[in-house]
Amino acid sequence: MLKVDSLPVVVVGGGAAGFMAAITAAEAGVEGVEIWEATAEPLAKVRISGGGRCNVTHACWDPSELVAHYPRGQRPLRGPFSRFAAGDAVAWFAERGVELVEENDGRMFPVTNSSATVVAALRAAAHRAGVKLQSQRALQEVTPSTDGFLLQARGMSEPIRCRRLLLATGGHPSGRRIAAALGHQVVPPVPSLFTLRLDAPWLTALAGLSQAPVDLELQVGSERFRQREGTVLITHWGLSGPGLLRLTAFAARTLQQHSYKAELRINWCGGLDTEQLQVQFAVARQELARRQLGNGRPELLLPMRRRLWLALLKQAGLDVNRTWAELPRRGEQRLAGLLLRTELPVIGRGPFGEEFVTAGGVDLGEVNMATMESRYVSGLHFAGELVDVDGVTGGFNFQHCWSSGWIAGGAIASALACKR
Ligand SMILES: Cc1cc2nc3c(=O)[nH]c(=O)nc-3n(C[C@H](O)[C@H](O)[C@H](O)COP(=O)(O)OP(=O)(O)OC[C@H]3O[C@@H](n4cnc5c(N)ncnc54)[C@H](O)[C@@H]3O)c2cc1C
């Protein structure tokens, strides 16, 4: 192993990104890598992630497809993902004893179905590589010096000197404050991946019902956001589900600027247009002529849950006991209008889904994505949620942590002239 004089590399933040960076640097031969973690529990978010199962990454193997899942960071991530993407993360964890398995929707979890496996593997890998973990050590101030940085931590009488500094403080304000004090632009943080509160008692009465495929369109001021053929979950406050969370992730900043007031348009028959629906109605009038509206549906509307179908009939002012033969033309038009475009007022942000991330952070224009090093402060690196990157739900946020941490750790090792 090559020894990098007496000054350690300090990784601030014992989360997913910090651990990946520290392990990568130490495995490449850097001695004296330390992780400073403010709390008593490193990797706390990994532990609670994915409902305690940890959705480590997503089975999306092509880097150019992978970037499409990041509302912020899409273009700049092309480079990093061409070097370390989902397949690399799967192999990286397999080499350290964590086998990941894919679910139907592409999310990947440890085969044990427990985040504790991931936490244990990261801690063990760090320990094996010689990384020193300093818990309850919160960085407060950084002063650049001629050959590195002076770090002042809470409760420490003397500052500590290090040659390379990696900030991986997640969504915590302290990291953003320190980055700004070092001259970086910080894009103001706003929440991402939240549900929507709707003023629609007839719909929220169906709480617990999930529906797919559904097309969503969100009109926020003059901006429009679309999400095709997703799954939504009706809740007692409005709407949730992967399709809706993806929509709010892309609209996060605009929604915040409009105080979370918007109009949501839902096509409950995702993929169907007016003409196709008219054909369905014509067929139903013939084939289901004697069936009551509430009890018979055209074939392409069968994926719709019956409770939702009944609620839509009622909203269209139709008597569910009437037969298809008795369906008035005007009533058919009202029903088609609702099926293809239910318009609902968004009155606020609902609670967060299983995953919560912050959009915003250190401006990517000021970071060299090949090394995750600051373009202004030599020796200063960033990784993880602290930078202005966030992904939709499904394992994409951790994937960014693994990729940026791996790149930063490797770059630190190269800069300190260690082998990779
Ligand atoms: C409930 C929940 C579930 C989630 N589930 C998933 C999931 O299944 N899959 C997925 O991809 N994403 C998930 N996410 C998102 C994911 O957890 C984050 O994107 C990821 O943890 C960010 O990692 P990070 O290392 O950048 O930051 P963090 O994990 O937040 O780690 C940063 C660390 O830095 C420490 N710190 C902060 N400031 C200082 C300081 N000044 N000095 C020292 N230490 C400091 C913090 O205490 C923290 O431990 C979930 C998020 C939540 C909240």
Quick summary:
The protein is α+β, with helices and mostly antiparallel strands and 420 residues long. It has two domains: 9-185 and 363-415, FAD/NAD(P)-binding domain (3-Layer(bba) Sandwich), CATH 3.50.50; 193-354, no CATH class. Helix content is 34%, strand content 27%.
With strands numbered from the N-terminus, the spatial order across the biggest sheet is 11-14-13-12-15-16
List segments where confidence is low: pLDDT < 50 over at least 5 consecutive residues.
1-5
**Total number of β-strand segments?**
19
Average pLDDT, rounded to a whole number, is 94
Largest sheet: 6 strands, antiparallel, barrel
**With helices defined by DSSP (H or I, 4 residues minimum), what is the helix count?**
13
Annotated CATH homologous superfamily of the largest domain: FAD/NAD(P)-binding domain
Structural class: alpha+beta
CATH topology-level name of the largest domain: FAD/NAD(P)-binding domain
What is the overall silhouette?
A: elongated
Small-molecule binders:
flavin-adenine dinucleotide
Using the coordinates above, name the CATH class of the largest domain: Alpha Beta
